[in-house]
Amino acid sequence: MKKKILIAGGTGFIGYHLAKQSIKKGWSVTSISSKSPKKYRYLKDVKYIICDVSKKKMIKKKLKNNYNFVVNLSGNVEHNNKKKTYKSHYVGCRNLADFFEKKKLESFIQIGSSTEYGKIKSPHKENSSCTPKSTYGYSKFLASVYLINLFEKKKFPATILRLYQVYGPKQDPNRILSSVILGCIKSEKIPCSHGRQFRDFIFVEDVIKAIFKSLKNKKAKGKIFNIGSAKPIKIKTVINKIKKIIKKGEPIFGKIKLRKEENLKIYPNISKAKKELKWFPKYSFSKGLNITINSYLKEGY
What we know:
Distance between the termini: 38 Å
CATH topology of the largest domain: Rossmann fold
Number of domains: 2
Strand order of the largest sheet: 3-2-1-4-5-6-11
Radius of gyration: 19 Å
CATH class of the largest domain: Alpha Beta
Structural class: alpha/beta
């Protein structure tokens, strides 16, 4: 029997890569998302369902099939709208979990975020008590708590993966790496922060491997895992590296102010994922960055 995977947020950047790799495995892939996929992220072998997961009735109406796996990547990308952020990242997750709680799922993977840790000093460990500062981080944290409780009470097969800065081909220009890459390609002046903050970057293919390992690991249920490189890099170094590779663009440092809740150094401890999931990042930052830049140069989006 073909394995069936439902990807909530399957039209997004990570969802696209997960769907692509699931198809290669011979799985039946369904995407549920509030929007149709952009042209450059459309996959002909994916069944696309348009649905707002923050609305319970819509989920019941749209989802009729059974699935082996559910991966929740859904949620509002722009976090300025606090109400929409809360509903899409917390209420949406809760609705999906409630809907599938009585189904015979093998795994439910919730894609969490490093922002759940808030002001906690890096390197973050999964057993830290979280103190999220942003609406996005708080919503993700509430989703994590809800799923862990559901596992403890009803053995719902949930696993939470807290991702750090994911990058790679097909990413929209609304993230630091993609925006700087595109700005350099177009020879633009690029407004940046002072660049003194350190961030942890993880290549999208390494993230997909972490998801697959989590799906198949029975001992991962009811647990949280950090997924990152554990090798923080100064943002100014990253931006200058991109400029050097592309040989164009003009970063203007200090133009953008950091958010009040923003930590200067954010990176994870990934020993738990290494030990229990047998996962570790295979792509160095230099290798992943070159693959990403070449994809943008080749495809021109």
